[in-house]
Design a protein that fits this description.
The chain is α+β, with helices and mostly antiparallel strands. Helix content is 19%, strand content 31%. The protein has a domain at 4-86 and 98-125.
C-alpha cells in the first residue's frame, strides 16, 4: 500500500479514500496474504481510519508447544489527530505531559502510511494467550520417581551421593 498524502484527501469524493488490498508483510509471517478493505476519511482536524482485514497465521501453543493455525480478524477504527509538530524547544528531556497529549497525531501536510497502521492492528489482534484448544492439557510427561531420574541422568549422581551422606531427620 502506498502512502496517502493527507491534503489530497480533502479533494477526494466525500473526503474519503477507500480501497481493497491483498498484501504480505515482511515482519508478520502469515500463511495467507492479509486481505480486506480500508477507508480513510478526512474530517478537518482529524482522520478516521477504518479497516476490515483477515489472514491466517501459524502460532505455537504455550501448553503443548504444537503449531496450529489461527485466523486473524481485524475490525478496527481509529481517530488520528492532525496537528503541526511540537516545537523542538518543547521536547525537553523532562517535561510534564498533559493527558490530552497522549494521542497519536499526524502533520496535516504529511503522509499517512496505511500499511504501517494495518501492521500494528494485526499485531494487536494476535492472541496474548496462545492455546491450540481450550482443553489442551500440555506436554505429557512420563511419571518417574526421583530415584529413576537420578539413574536416568548421570548429572544427578553427585546430588544422590550427597543425599546419602546427610543424616535422616527423626519423625516423632
Amino acid at each position: 500500500m502506498e502512502a496517502i498524502f493527507i491534503p489530497q484527501l480533502t479533494k477526494a469524493p466525500d473526503r474519503t479514500l477507500s480501497f481493497a488490498f491483498r498484501e504480505n508483510f515482511d515482519d508478520l509471517d502469515t500463511l495467507t496474504p492479509v486481505k480486506g478493505e480500508i477507508a480513510v476519511t478526512h474530517h478537518g482536524n482529524f482522520l478516521e481510519v477504518q479497516v476490515q482485514a483477515e489472514a491466517i497465521k501459524t502460532l505455537t501453543c504455550y501448553r503443548c508447544l504444537q503449531n496450529y493455525n489461527h485466523r486473524l480478524v481485524v475490525k478496527a477504527s481509529e481517530l488520528l489527530w492532525l496537528e503541526d509538530s511540537v516545537p523542538e524547544a518543547a521536547l525537553a528531556l523532562e517535561r510534564e505531559v498533559p493527558l490530552d497529549d497522549l494521542v497519536e497525531s499526524l502533520s496535516p501536510q504529511g503522509h499517512f502510511y496505511p500499511s504501517e497502521w494495518l501492521y500494528q492492528q494485526l499485531c494487536l489482534a494476535i492472541p496474548q494467550k496462545q492455546l491450540c484448544d481450550s482443553a489442551c492439557e500440555g506436554i505429557s510427561l512420563p511419571s518417574t520417581s526421583p530415584s529413576q531420574i537420578g539413574s536416568a541422568d548421570d548429572r544427578w549422581a553427585a546430588l544422590a551421593a550427597l543425599k546419602q551422606q546427610l543424616p535422616q531427620p527423626k519423625i516423632d
